[in-house]
Amino acid sequence: MTNLFRKKAVGYDNSEFGLKRCLSALDLTLLGVGAIIGTGIFVLTGHAAAVQSGPGVVLSFVVAGVACGFAALSYAELASSVGGCGSAYGYSYAAFGELIAWIIAWDLILEYGVSVAAVANGWSGYLNNALMAMGIGLPESLTRGPSALAWNEHLGSALQWFGFDPNAPGVKEAGRGGIINLPAAGVILMLMLLLIAGVKESARINAAAVVIKLIAIAIFIGVAVFNVNPDNWSPFLPFGWFSHDGSRPIGVLAGASIVFFAYVGFDAVSTAVEEAYEPQRDVPIGILAALVFCTVIYVIVSALMTGIVPYHALNVPSPASEALLRIGYNTAAGLVATGVVAGLTTVMLVLYYALTRIIVGVSRDGLLPAYFKTVNSRTQTPVRTTVITGTVMAIMAGFIPLGVLAELVNIGTLAAFVLVCGGVIALRISHPDMPRPFKTPGGIVLPVLGILSCGALIAFLPYETHLRFILWLAVGLVIYFCYSIRHSKLAMA
Question: Is the pTM of this model over 0.85?
Answer without folding.
Answer: no
